[in-house]
Write a sequence for this structure.
């Protein structure tokens, strides 16, 4: 019976082709609307953060449009973003970016969530010479490939916890001790992101000539850190640094609490994503958490006002406190707005040059790209959990509260 | 080998590693025994094994969020998963039971993907855990800590293990399952409804995984896509222990659990899984040598 269907198939495929050609003809600017494109994770393991990213983008689009849009060549334009679901898989992400460029004619790309997805998409945008501004790919391997069209507003991963080392050194000096006497323990997941963090921490530890006594690489399917904690009990390091996304954060905080392991300083990533305060309450106290951004920072811009204004607006709109993943996504859109206005053109070449010359302050922080496309104007922030609240304690310039150091022993709490 | 020195100077830490290893191994033993059962009776290697474990965890988590103590999750998760297992058998597995092993691997792989995505949709992709509220036991001047929930898990495994042995020895269904495992055709000729036996076996396996999942969510953390680790671990234990002998499965699980902890301590956490896989290869080689020797005698 398939032979009768053949003409139907032929007609169908011809129709599909026609539609896709028509799609390709649709330009990056549709009437008075500038079309941006993004492949985000709406399903799969990154869907929570995919949602934060989308909300961040949408809030920026809404605000910019409300305030009259963007002026390019004397004409006002509104913004719109086309989204696809990359299912949290890199291969799908790369396909979708190609589709955004070739079929939907998108020439202004926004980044996906996670370094892995960004790594899969960057070669595609590079091939078609389409600029991509991203706020959720921090791996430093994104910035040593010589990409010309990739711009990241966030601090790269090797900076995530390096600040903790400097903080420990400061504390040691203040207590009249030599930072070189400090013993350092690392437990980092064996993936590119955490290993970048490890490299950054080791660099800073070396400048203070600290002694690394434990350097465990946690397996990806990690759910138990007992062995590493046993080593910590044996070797008594002064600083413990852990990184392993939400899973690592939850596991480390929980098992430190359960097994009553004492360390003077304990720093991790992904506290907010793992909701360590909500889950473990007092057990999470005094933990140092690395964050890209905090709503108590004093940065400002013309669209959102201060960081805390942004946080209020976001919460009103979406019903939850914005995590930094949302803030850096909003900032990515603001960078596009700024570049489009300065370039005063839709030419991707001119836009690329305008992006690379970016020097601005947003509610998210200062943004200035180096030649590899990463933001070098914004430091990472360390917050300590004090009384169930996240309090900024480093860098000292932006700190709102004082570090409690050393962590009180479990037996004294 | 600085780490070896620590163990030699302070042997107390080996006690910690040993206890943890044995208790961790006991949780894996449950899922592994289910896998051995399925493999032995139905000749199915169940790739979705770990996803039943995680699903059991989510059942427990749902109870926990409703304010019920997560320990009740052990029987409830087992019951819910028994029903889920039965349904999956009736929907999919009965079509692949007598087919090639490869077909059943594909089918269960598909079920695994489906379950992961459903759990992702229903429970979200975030890391979750349930607090049992049980404390720690501190031994030897607080040098060794044993979490009580792991002890409870161990007790649950022992009870379930004994119950299973009794079930297979004494009950009609247990005997029917054993008969079917030995020779399905002969069992059918003797009037055993093998289709029902298969359904029962599959559901029983899912129930065991569900109970294991309840223990996992109280001991560690769960997430919809973390099941594969449990599938692989079960597979390894079964390969080492062989099919159909619960004592061997438990022994292999405990042994691997302890070996893993020592390997992670001495070699570093990155070699924990690698060491277990290396051990698996060695065990397979050794077993193969012994089998060859027997075959030579038969010639």
């Amino acid at each position: 019976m398939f032979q009768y269907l053949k003409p139907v198939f032929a007609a169908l495929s011809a129709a599909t082709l026609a539609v896709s050609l028509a799609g390709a003809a649709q330009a990056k600017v549709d009437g008075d609307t500038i079309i941006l494109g993004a492949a985000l994770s709406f399903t799969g393991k990154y869907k929570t953060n995919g949602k934060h990213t989308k909300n961040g983008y949408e809030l920026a689009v809404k605000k910019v449009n409300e305030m009259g849009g963007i002026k390019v060549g004397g004409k006002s334009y509104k913004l719109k973003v086309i989204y696809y679901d990359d299912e949290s898989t890199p291969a799908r992400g790369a396909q979708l970016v190609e589709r955004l460029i070739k079929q939907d004619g998108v020439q202004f790309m926004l980044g996906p969530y996670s370094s892995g997805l960004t790594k899969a998409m960057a070669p595609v945008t590079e091939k078609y010479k389409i600029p991509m501004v991203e706020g959720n790919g921090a791996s430093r391997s994104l910035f040593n490939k010589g990409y010309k069209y990739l711009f990241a507003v966030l601090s790269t991963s090797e900076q995530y916890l390096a600040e903790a080392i400097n903080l420990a050194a400061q504390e040691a000096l203040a207590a009249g001790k030599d930072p070189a006497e400090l013993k350092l323990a690392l437990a980092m997941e064996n993936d590119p992101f955490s290993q970048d963090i490890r490299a950054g921490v080791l660099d800073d530890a070396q400048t203070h000539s600290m002694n690394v006594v434990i350097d465990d690489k946690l397996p990806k399917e990690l759910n138990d850190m007992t062995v590493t904690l046993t080593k910590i009990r044996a070797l008594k390091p002064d600083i413990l640094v852990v990184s392993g996304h939400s899973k690592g954060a939850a596991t480390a905080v929980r098992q430190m609490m359960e097994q009553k392991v004492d360390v003077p300083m304990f720093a991790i990533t992904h506290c907010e994503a793992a909701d360590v305060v909500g889950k473990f309450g007092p057990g999470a106290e005094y933990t140092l958490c690395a964050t890209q951004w905090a709503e108590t920072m004093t940065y400002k811009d013309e669209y959102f006002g201060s960081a805390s204004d942004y946080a209020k607006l976001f919460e009103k709109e979406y019903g939850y406190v914005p995590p930094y993943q949302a803030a850096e996504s909003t900032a990515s859109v603001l960078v596009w707005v700024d570049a489009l206005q300065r370039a005063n053109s839709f030419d991707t070449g001119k836009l690329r040059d305008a992006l690379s010359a970016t020097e601005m302050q947003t509610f998210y922080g200062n943004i200035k790209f180096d030649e590899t496309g990463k933001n070098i104007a914004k430091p990472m922030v360390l917050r300590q959990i004090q009384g169930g609240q996240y309090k900024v304690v480093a860098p000292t310039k932006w700190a709102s509260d004082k570090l409690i150091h050393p962590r009180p022993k479990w037996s004294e709490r | 080998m600085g780490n070896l020195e620590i163990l030699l100077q302070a042997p107390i830490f080996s006690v910690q590693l040993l206890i943890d290893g044995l208790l961790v191994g006991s949780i894996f033993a449950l899922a592994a025994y289910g896998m051995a059962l399925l493999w032995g009776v139905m000749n199915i290697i169940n790739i979705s094994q770990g996803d039943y474990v995680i699903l059991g965890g989510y059942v427990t988590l749902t109870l926990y969020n409703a304010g019920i103590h997560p320990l009740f999750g052990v029987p409830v998760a087992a019951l819910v998963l028994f029903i889920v297992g039965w349904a999956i058998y009736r929907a999919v597995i009965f079509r692949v039971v007598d087919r090639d092993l490869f077909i059943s691997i594909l089918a269960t792989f598909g079920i695994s993907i489906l379950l992961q995505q459903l759990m992702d949709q229903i429970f979200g992709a975030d890391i979750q855990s349930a607090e049992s509220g049980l404390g720690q036991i501190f031994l030897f001047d607080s040098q060794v800590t044993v979490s009580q929930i792991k002890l409870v898990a161990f007790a649950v495994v022992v009870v379930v293990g004994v119950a299973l042995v009794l079930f297979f020895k004494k009950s009609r269904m247990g005997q029917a399952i054993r008969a079917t495992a030995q020779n399905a055709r002969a069992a059918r000729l003797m009037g055993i409804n093998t289709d029902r036996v298969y359904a029962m076996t599959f559901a029983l396996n899912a129930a065991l995984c569900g109970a294991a999942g309840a223990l996992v969510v109280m001991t560690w953390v769960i997430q919809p896509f973390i099941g594969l680790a449990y599938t692989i671990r079960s597979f390894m234990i079964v390969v080492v222990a062989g099919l159909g002998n619960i004592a061997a499965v438990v022994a292999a699980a405990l042994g691997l659990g302890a070996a893993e902890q020592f390997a992670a301590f001495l070699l570093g956490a990155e070699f924990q899984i690698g060491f277990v896989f290396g051990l698996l290869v060695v065990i397979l080689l050794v077993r193969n040598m012994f089998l060859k020797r027997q075959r030579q005698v038969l010639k």
